[in-house]
Each structure stands twice: as structure tokens, then as C-alpha cells.
Amino acid sequence: MDQYTLNLIIVGATFLLYIGIAIWARAGSTSEFYAAGRGVHPVTNGMATAADWMSAASFISMAGLIAFGGYGASSFLMGWTGGYVLLALLLAPYLRKFGKFTVPEFIGDRFYSPTARLVAVLCLIVASVTYVIGQMTGVGVAFSRFLEVENATGLFIGAGVVFLYAVLGGMKGITYTQVAQYCVLITAYTIPAVFISLQLTGNPIPGLGLFSTHVESGEPLLSRLNQVVQDLGFSAYTTQDGTPSSVINMTLFTFSLMIGTAGLPHVIIRFFTVPRVADARWSAGWALVFIALLYLTAPAVGAMARLNIMDTLWPNGVQGEAMEIEQMPDWMTTWEQTGLLGFEDKNGDGRIQYYNDKSESMAAIAAERGWQGNELTNFNRDILVLANPEIARLPGWVIALVAAGGLAAALSTAAGLLLAISSAISHDVIKSSINPNISERGELLAARISMAVAIGVATYLGLNPPGFAAQTVALAFGIAAATIFPALMMGIFFKRINNTGAVAGMLTGLIFTVVYIFLHKGWFFLPGTNQFPDTIAGSLFGIQSTAIGSVGAILNFLVAWLVARSTTETPDHIKELVESVRVPRGAAAATVTH
Prior knowledge:
Elements: H1 3-24, H2 30-35, H3 42-53, H4 56-69, H5 75-98, H6 103-110, H7 114-146, H8 151-201, H9 206-209, H10 221-231, H11 244-262, H12 265-268, H13 277-295, H14 298-313, E1 323-324, H15 330-336, E2 341-342, E3 351-352, H16 360-369, E4 378-379, H17 384-391, H18 396-434, H19 440-462, H20 469-493, H21 499-521, H22 548-565, H23 572-582
Antiparallel strand pairs: 1-3, 2-4
């Protein structure tokens, strides 16, 4: 059976599974659409949360960033896992005890302000839409390669599948679909990693293989990788750029990912689905266990893939001859057709030289050998995990399984994000502000229509993403970190923060962060033209756009505190509400208010 047919069968089977689960778990009420009837077991919810969390960025893009960024890219691992600890300890149980359906609903009630609720909706939509772009990017990448269709066609197919199970099932359908998607994605991620670890180190556990001996060279795997990348003029894989700006950015970026994780609405609403307050904390714990299975494997996948790529491009060793174009492996030819991999024989020698052409250490070697620059002109980081089985020459069924896993990761998170967006629109805008007397049936219809519109917008934006999946997602984390996380923290732990302070803080964090990202990335029209500038604009103290969420969060806290101190005191009944949420009576059933 050819690879295309195998891909089609396995991916198609998983899609039928997701749609079948959605039909079985069809939501019949707003409670089931928004919160799965609040009857999900903590272990089930932990697995669904893990799938909701481990997006295209985790499955497709993170290992690619680690492969080419080395130690510096470990911020993704530290920030995302650390954020779950914050979520489990500081937010999840208290928000579940409050008993609401959505994050904006909590903010609106806690800060006794419809305006605060609407501002929270705005922040949620901006963060979630930015995040979902990364997921749709991942869907397009996976489809364009494995089903041999155009990127846009892949996006439309993925959007159609999400539409069927998310609009139909709501949170109830999405929960059980995400359990199936977790099983698919974790299997698809670990099986190739086990094969590759065995090939390179003889150790079947990738996390241990990373620190084992490289079979071919007899050296420790990381030492071998360090030697290879340094011989080609790149920085050592296991060391960080020690410049002050690099240290500051890594610290702020890690912190931004942590508090952004704890403030992501599509993750928080998963803790509204369990029966009791104590179950919310257990759900977070189980989610960490399920997430760890992938996150402990990702560094090994990245490092081993980088070494495999080097060995492919320099089959005779770094000091030997580069790969001949005529001997190019099939996986490079195939991925070149997608436009995500590109090369150019600049010196006409029939080979592909891959090295750091900006390195002073390589200048003399390049001049001596007649190299005209790095000839691997495009290597999209998002293809690495998907191409890994082909690079390692694994069986065809493994390649098809990875395709299904990548799509499962992207679709599971996209569904959660789209539900958060549609719930905010239908429950926090339409029911709360536009038509408070809307019937439950009408609200359910509004939620489904909102979901359909959100899918359409996400698909449109996914056609022209602003960066790699993980880069786009990192921007979403910065926005959530600067807006939603501070509001939730102050709402739970600071009785003195009033409605005026909360609104001022959220708007400050949102405006500062979004404007900085647009300025830093160059996403604005040049005066008098209809074109974006090609160069990155200036930055504040060298802080990158992906790390600015931490600064936005600090400004949010500061402005909210100053404004609250200079305006009316928080009403007594709100102070009592905050106190009741924080009293540790977590084992009892939570109060449900709608």
C-alpha cells in the first residue's frame, strides 16, 4: 500500500472517530454546551485538558524550535509546564468554586461591572483568536504534506471537521473527543521517538537516550551534537547566549508563558466541567501527568532530529563533502513541494552546503571551498516533527500515525479555543448585555452560530499566519498574561481592587502589549502605502515581542492598584464574596450560579 493511501486511511479513521463521539455526546442544553453538565471525572478531564493544551505548537512546532534553538528554546518547556502549577494552585479551585460558565462572567460578577465583563470578552477574543491562528497553521502544514493538498485546502478540511464536532457537541462533545485525540497524539509522538532513540543510542526511552552514548561516534549524544553544530559555525546546542539582553528575554519570556498559561480561557473553562471544587485541583494534577509524557520526550525529539538532519546534509562528516543534489533523500524532495523546505545551489557545485554563513569561524573555510552562502534557504520549523519519521526512515504506518497525531493536536486545541470564544459571545455578550431574556434554546442556537462564525474567522486568519505555530501561540500567551491572568489573580486575592481599577488594568495591559507587538513585528502599514515594512521596528530595552506579556502584566497590576486606591472602596458584599471563594471548603460540591 502506498504512503498516500495509508495516510488517508489512518487520518480518515481518526476523523470518523471524532465525529462519531460528537454525535454520541451531542449537547442538549446550555449547561452541556458550556460545561459538559459539570459531570466530567477528574482523570477524564485531565486527559481532555492535556489534549486541549498540547496544541499544534506543542506537537508540531516546539520540537522544531528546540532542534534549532537548543538551550534557548527550553523556555517553552519551563514556561508551559510551570504555568500549570500556577493554575492548579492559584486559580482552578477558586474559579470552580465560584461556579460560573465563563471567565468573563467571573470577572463581571467579581468586579460588579458589565463593562469589566465586556472588556474581559475583548481580551479573551484577542488572545484566543491569536492562539487559534497557530492551530490552523498546524492543520495546513500537516494536510499539505500528508494528504498532498494545498495549504488552503487543508485548512478548509480541518475547519469542516472542527465544525462538525464542536458546533454539534459543545463542551460535552469536545471533552470526549479530546480524550480520543490525546490517545492519538501521544501515541503518534512517542512511537517515532522510541524508534529514533533506539537507532541513535540503543535506548528505547527518548528522555534517557538524550543523555546516552551516540552509537555511531561512541560519544555522548549531546557532546556529538555540540561538536557538529559548532564545526558548522553555530552556537553550542547546550549553552545559552550569555548577553544581558538574551538573559532578560529568556527570563521574561518564560514568565510570560507561565502566567499566560494560567490565564488562557480555553484551559480555565475545562475546570468548570468537574462536579466538585476538589476535582478541579485533581484535574490539573492529572493534566500535568498526561502532559509530561510529551514534554519529557520533546527535548530528545528536537536534539535527535537536529543530529539526523546534520548527518543527512553532511553524510561524510562536517569536514567532508556536503550532500549531492542528485542523492537528495525522498523526504526533502517531498517537503520541497509543499513550499516549507527550500534550497539553492548558489555556487553551482551540485551540492547543498548548510552552515552558518554569518559566522567568522566559517568565513575562511567557506572562501577556501568556494561556498557562496548557506544553501538550505528555507526550513520551516513546523515540519520537523512531521518529517522526523521520514528523516529516520521509519515504516509508512508510523508516518501516517504522526500525520494523524499532528492533526489531533491542532484540532483539539482549536476546538477548545473556539468554544471559549463562542461562549463569551453568546453567554457574556448576547445573554448578558443584548438580550437578557433569551430562552435557553435561543442561547444554545446563538452559541452554535457564534462557534460557526469563529471557525470561519480563524480559518481566514490561518491562511496568512504571522509566524511559525509556536511563535504565533507565544504572542497569544503574552496577551493572556498581560490581561486575563492579573484580573483573575486580583479578583481572587485582592479585595481592594474595584471595578474601575480592574477595567483600567486590563485595558492598559491589552493596549500596551498589542501595540508593542505590532510595532516590534512591523505589522502596520507604512504611511501613504498599502504595504507592511520588511524590517522589525525598535524595541524597549531589547525586549522581544514574545516576552513583552510579562511587562504588560506588571503594568496591569500597577495601574489597577493605583486606580483602585484612588477611587471608591469595593462594596462589602463583594468583599464577602471574595472571602467565601477563598475559604478552603474545597471538598464540598460547588455552588452553581448562572
